[in-house]
Amino acid sequence: MEKFKTKEKAAFVTGLEKIIDKELLTASESELECLYLAVLSEVKQKIYNKMGEVKKAYSFSFTPAQAMALRVLFLIKAKSVDMYMCNRMLQVANSIQQHYAS
User: Taking a C-beta distance cutoff of 8 angstroms, is the pair 97, 71 a contact?
Assistant: First the structure.
């Protein structure tokens, strides 16, 4: 499977990092949740490393597992964020689904 590539504005990436931080604070009750949180932790580290250099937009390349963990996060959290984040999260979630459906 190919990596999922995306370019995101700094405002979205900053918001995403905060959402992932909150999600990582949740207690995991099953092995599946532990796996999901472990992969989100990898995503957070990737974001943290990229944001070391201030830019207007950041390019990311996510492994299939990372992309699917982001998709799950986006579908779960989209309703609990502001309209900009919600719209962009759903757009990226759809892009991930289309990328791996073909």
Answer: yes
